[in-house]
Amino acid sequence: MKTPSRLIAFYLPQYHPIPENDEWWGEGFTEWRNVSRAKPLFSGHYQPHVPADLGYYDLLDEGTRVAQAQLAKEYGIEGFCYYHYWFNGRRLLERPLQEVLASGKPDFPFCVCWANENWTRRWDGEEQQVLMKQEYSEADDRAHIRSLFPVFEDKRYIRVDGKPFFLVYRTENMPDPARTAEIWREEARRAGIGELYLCRVESIGYRDPTEINFDAALEFAPDWMCNGPRLTADSASPGNPAETMGKVCEDNLVYSYQTLIDNMMGKEIPGYQWFRCVTPSWDNCARRKKDASIYVGSTPELYGDWLRGAVDITCARLSGDERIVFINAWNEWAEGNHLEPDQKHGLAYLEATRQALEESLLSGVTDNERTRELVIYRYQLNALEQRLLREEQKMEELLNSTSWRLTMPIRWVKRRLLDLKKYFSA
Question: Which domain holds residue 266?
């Protein structure tokens, strides 16, 4: 399938037992244990996410990896971006990719993203209860990049203008990312790999990648700066008992999926090289019993519209190998963001992916600069207009609500008391 943009999906290589997870979480642990034990927290809450076509697979099975690639290719995904775990010379969850390299199967493009966070019991990469800590040094920088040369040399490895495409999840965790990038580039040239195409993920905060000797940045979806207001009991799930939803909203971070889309699509385009990212959904309560981030209201249709907008803007801004859009993710089941089919939606999110590509306004790409600018402005303006319309609807619903009318006398008294306070303070 010929597509207007290169779609790359993040890929979690976690679904197979390793000794470390056996020690930390119990024998035979994989993320499927969290996924299958998830419970709905309120009426209409979609949990657990139960896999359909591929089942509760083991990624050490070659047949599973081949089936994943075939499914992804059929619906327009160009390649997978494997999360890569390196801790000062120690690799974790490396076997799926190593077996892909050794066997040559599947014949499907891939790249890697160094997930350079601490491993913790909270699954958030922060400092509480660290299980595996990241350590940085110049010697480790050299050893790390050298270990990746066999990966970069694979004929399936994704390149940008001939350069191996290597991502780092949190450059802000690195003590001197510019120096690390310099070392990596030096080692790659010396080994005959040539130039690298380095990309930082905007998982936390924004920064011009050229300031740290990187080539590009990738927005992460969800962008935590674009969440919008936390939902309350009434706004999160109208009609449910307030005390039930109130507890859910108190213990967790509940947001609107539509608001996330509006805010992310309404972002100002930065001056540096920048790739867009979308997510089909997000709900990590399978991993967390408290402080989970839950986005309500995701549908294949909303996701498809978001992806189509991201593709159009990408085609308007970028050219050649840099026409890249990321999807988060292919199989992050415990975070509720997966394109792989589940028992509720089946293939709907994959079908929305293919349809978004087919309907992209710029599938016949133009090089007209004015047309590119108009496409970008149109999507940003549309996002702002839709956000304003929803706010107006919320205000109208509030003004017409019984609670608003019943509390009107209280608000009147409160205003008068404030006026009296100002009067006597004058």
Answer: 6-365
Phi, psi of 356 (to 5 degrees): -60, -40
pLDDT, tens digit, 9 for 90 and up, residues 248-267:
888 899 999 999 999 999 89
110: tokens are 């891939």
CA-to-CA separations, 95 to 25, 71, 327, 329, in angstroms, rounded: 19, 21, 23, 20
Q: Which residues contact 159 (CB under 8 A, 6 or more apart)?
A: 165, 197, 321
CA distance 356 to 310: 10
Residue 382 lies in a domain: no
Q: What share of the chain is helix, strand, coil (3-state, %, to 5)?
A: 45, 15, 40
3-class state of residue 325 by DSSP: strand
Q: How do 119-120 and 293-296 pair as beta strands? A: unpaired
Q: How far apart are CA 399 and CA 261, in angstroms?
A: 26
Residue 379 lies in a domain: no
Give domain status of residue 43, yes or no.
yes
Q: What is the pTM of this model?
A: 0.85
**DSSP codes joined into one string, 238-268:** TTS-HHHHHHHHHHSEEEEHHHHHHHHHTSP
Contact 170, 204 (CB under 8 A): yes
Dump the DSSP string for 104-159: --S---EEEEE--S-EETTSSSSSTTEEE-----HHHHHHHHHHHHHHHTSTTB-E
Q: Under a CB-based contact definition with an 8 Å cutoff, are residues 379 and 387 in contact?
A: no
Residue 375's CB is within 10 A of a number of other CB atoms, namely 20
- Residue with the bigger pLDDT between 192 and 247: it is 192
Pairing of strands 331-332, 110-114: unpaired
Q: Is residue 196 part of a domain?
A: yes
- Residue 12 CB-density burial (10 A; 0-12 exposed, 13-18 middle, 19+ buried): buried
What is the dihedral sign for C-alpha 101, 106, 107, 113? negative
| DSSP H or E segment with residue 350 | helix 348-358
Number of domains in the chain: 1
* Beta pairing, strands 159-160 & 163-168: antiparallel
Closest CA to 186 of 137, 146, 215: 146
If you average pLDDT over residues 40-53, what whole number do you get?
Answer: 94
For residue 4, the model assigns a pLDDT of: 79
Name residue 120's beta-bridge partners. Answer: 130
Task: Name the nearest CA neighbour of 177 among 150, 153, 201.
Answer: 201
